[in-house]
Amino acid sequence: MAFPEILNARALRQGIDGFVNQLVIDYADTLERLSQPLLNFLVFVEQLLRNSPWYLVIAFLAIIAWFGSKRWTLMVGVVLLMLFIGVIGQWDRGMQTLALMIVSLVMCLIVGIPVGVLMSLSERFRKVALPVLDVMQTMPSFVYLIPVVMLFGLGKVPALIATIVYAVPPLIRLTDLGIRLVDHSVMEAATAFGATRRQKLMGVQLPLAMPNIMAGINQTTMMALSMVVVASMIGARGLGQEVLAGINRLEVGRGLLAGLAIVALAILFDRVTQAYGQRLQYPKQGDK
Amino acid sequence: MAKIEISGIYKIFGPNPKRHLQAVTKGLSKDSLLADTGHTLGLQDVNLSIEEGELFVIMGLSGSGKSTLIRHINRLIDPTSGSIRIDGENVLNLRQNELIQLRRHKMSMVFQRFALFPHKTVLDNVAYGLTVQGIDKKNARVIAADWLEQVGLQGFGDQHPHELSGGMQQRVGLARALATNPDILLMDEAFSALDPLIRKEMQDLLMKLQQQLHKTIVFITHDLDEALRLGNRIAILKDGALVQQGDPQDILLAPQDDYVADFVKDVNRGKVLNAHHVLAKPVSTLTTQTSVTKAREWIMRHGFDYATVLEGPYLKGIVTLNALQSATEDTIRERVSPVSSVLESADLESLMPRMIRDTAPIAVTTDNGEFVGWVSRTKVIRLISPAQPIGQQDPVGELTE
Fold first, then answer.
1. How distant is the Cα of B185 from the closest Cα of chain A, in angstroms?
2. Which of B111, B119, B161 has the CB atom closest to A207's CB atom?
3. Were B167 and a residue from A23, B31, B198, B306 both cysteine, which residue would form a disulfide, CB within 3.0 to 4.6 Å?
4. Domains in chain B and their CATH numbers?
5. What pTM, to 2 d.p., does this model score?
């Protein structure tokens, strides 16, 4: 039996369409202008990575891996993974994807950590933010790809924004959780010594939440990588585009090689961020 | 003026404490408040005045409200009603930034579970209070290093707290609290998490530091032995209300009710009490320059066996009537016989064998040898016998008559 028609879904749909269309008419130009710095940043990173000699890029990543983990095995692993990407002929596209990852990660940090901090400080804000995060994580990304493309046009910026929307929630959640998990008695000590809210946040809460925040960064990078193919549908270049081409032309080899390169990047990001997070972990007091 | 003056503090925990305040002040009990309204009565009508330079112990079982009470002094918890004056100023009227200044400069706190910052080195932990004040890191570290040495942890500055044992961690906690040179030290069960030997060590350290620093210390504990050992005065808290306050002897000898008597019952008095507690001051003393006739007259007039002879603040010995009978010289100098003495801090357990072996009086002196009085045998016997709540028969009283 059909469900009784309570409101006119067709009219609702058209209403939403009309609203978004109006939004595009009124604001698309402004938004594109506002997003210009973001585009410049992305292009800058991309040019830097693509124009630098490959061995310099690998050396740079190896240094980051060393300072992140202080383990030479991991450093060697990073070098091998990057060589692998080059050997299977995905270097240039890999650099494009890497640039997108780096920029979206930076944007996620800029947005995610302050929002997470706010959530941990205000119960009210937290109550509002949690369902929003749930929606961001569960809503199929294609649904918001349409209006984002309409507003920003095809290209790098909408891909970046879609990636951020999809990838930032775990960082926000884990920042909030990390701050909430800071030992109550340690916070009390800071208060008892006359620390201001700011001193408590910067000097105690954030440093002690770092292991959790690093776990959040790890999750965020993984989710951003998983958006690579979707992002390429709206104009992001790189490995995703290659996978897409593989699908369109039914070329398994093309898709597989690009896919393997994505996996290599994922492993690289994952291991380095995890190792750094572990190094930040302090044993609880009283354990001895 | 008392250093800390707590008057009429009530604390009710729950969603709407003010609404139930009146019922509580009219005598609604903790249990019925909880049953009727779901609110918990934390403190009821607590009045305390803590003097400058004293080590004031607040004692009670868990749930008695002692940790709540100490957190009122630096306003980690605000009372439902009442006032807290520090140096005459009601801290409840302070604005947020004034409160922060008070916490930075006037008082600091030592915590039961140490509450050190796990991400900072030991040295930076000690320096924390100073850096929060805005002192630059370099100077703060110099001061912190000095305090680290005072608590016996020189050389550990670069380690992290988790690398130290519990006792050492609490030394860091103590150094952190002292580094800002506050007037008031709040110690919330500071030594309760430590094992007995380390606890005793920390008590000794605290007493040693207190002798030099003369801070006003509020010390929370559930351990009566600790309270008696450390406290100049002791207040006992039960269900958020004060049941008794007084000096250690008061508590031991005249427990106000069964709750306190229960506490006192199992105390090892021989260990807890020391010569200071069984002191009898001589009515008056003679000097080596006193004339023989005057001394003889003095002893007979008072009906004593002997008189105390001092030279300046130091004990010379005693002079007995016997020794004076045949004396022909002018002063009693040559007739004084020496006596043995103990330090004020000597515990009763170590005194007992001497008292039993020897009937001669035992003198009590300070650490630097000044005479303070005699060991009173009567007091010793009274103090080591089990306490009875007031109003009950005191069997020892009869014995000593």
1. 11
2. B119
3. B198
4. 53-73+92-269 (3.40.50.300), 277-383 (3.10.580.10)
5. 0.79
